Amino acid sequence: MHIGSLTRVEIRIDDLTSQDIIDLLRGHLAEMRSVTPREESVHALDLDALRRPQVTVWSAREDGRIAGCGAIKRLDARHGEIKSMRTAATHRRRGVAALLLRHMTAEAARAGMTRLSLETGAEDFFEPARRLYLAHGFEYCEPFGDYRPDPLSVFMTRRIA
Questions:
Q1: What would the DSSP string read from start to end of the chain?
Q2: pLDDT digits (tens, 9 = 90+) for 99-117
């Protein structure tokens, strides 16, 4: 597969046992905690939560090297939540997140989901993520699932086929 400056990217369901994906996700959680002013506003999942049966994690690898990851947490039979979107520092601004998002959306549709939603930060740090989601058909929405209004959170959703 080729996108932008990416070549030979493989996206697969990940069992979260290899050290590179563990390091990527631990770094993700640490960064979310460092840029979010209140701990209760950090909604990133830790490794144990990502290993639950209702969560599927995909990793993207280029020539065997971790390029990024993303997950979907099944909220119910038709509704999934995007979680743990992360691009490795070595692969930023090369289209990894867009590639993963398209792949995960297609997989969610194949699994019978009709809606994907997400929570991301409201701070400037999260602006690139919000732009990515808007470019892929997500729209701002009210809190969903167990979320409550939070001035540090932005909620987005989109219908899928």
A1: -EETTEESEEEEE--S-SHHHHHHHHHHHHHHHHHSSSGGG-----HHHHTSTTEEEEEEEETTEEEEEEEEEE-SSSEEEEEEEEE-GGGTTTTHHHHHHHHHHHHHHHTT--EEEEEEE-SGGGHHHHHHHHHTT-EE----TT----TTEEEEEEE--
A2: 999 999 999 999 999 999 9
